[in-house]
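Postdoc handover notes: sequence design on the structure in folder B. Input tokens:
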């Protein structure tokens, strides 16, 4: 019995670590934002094209942290539920938290969502493990 609970905690921890890796990668990777600017010269048709590569933090400022941190908070809550050992809390919150994270990945799929998809998939495994533990205890 105790072994399955440890597997659920490890799974929740892996999900949280994956979310943190995606958060830091998206926030600080210097090629997260790419842009092109064209400068027209005053004398004629010649123009200068400049490519810009920067991180999301540099391009968007501190407000970019909020949407990027949302999956990290969800996985941290799931880890807290797994660590608490409270069966009722796991029963009530594990699946909704995993579903919220998967929904976030689907809704933001073409921008940042795909980076958090591994964490969402592992959180689904965690919810399954927590639910499986609950059913095994009830079977006794």
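Designed sequence:
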């Amino acid at each position: 019995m105790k072994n399955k609970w440890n597997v659920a905690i490890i799974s929740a921890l892996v999900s949280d670590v994956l979310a943190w890796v995606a958060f830091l990668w998206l926030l600080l990777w210097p090629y997260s934002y790419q842009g092109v600017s064209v400068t027209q010269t005053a004398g004629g048709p010649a123009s200068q094209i400049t490519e810009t590569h920067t991180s999301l933090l540099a391009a968007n400022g501190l407000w970019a942290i909020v949407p990027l941190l949302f999956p990290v908070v969800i996985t941290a809550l799931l880890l807290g539920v797994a660590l608490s050992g409270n069966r009722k809390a796991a029963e009530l919150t594990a699946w909704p938290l995993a579903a919220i994270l998967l929904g976030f990945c689907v809704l933001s799929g073409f921008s940042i969502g795909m980076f958090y998809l591994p964490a969402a998939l592992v959180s689904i495994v965690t919810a399954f493990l927590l639910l499986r533990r609950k059913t095994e205890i009830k079977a006794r």
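Context for whoever picks this up: The helical segments are 2-28, 56-60, 65-84, 87-107, 109-139. Don't rerun without checking with the PI first.
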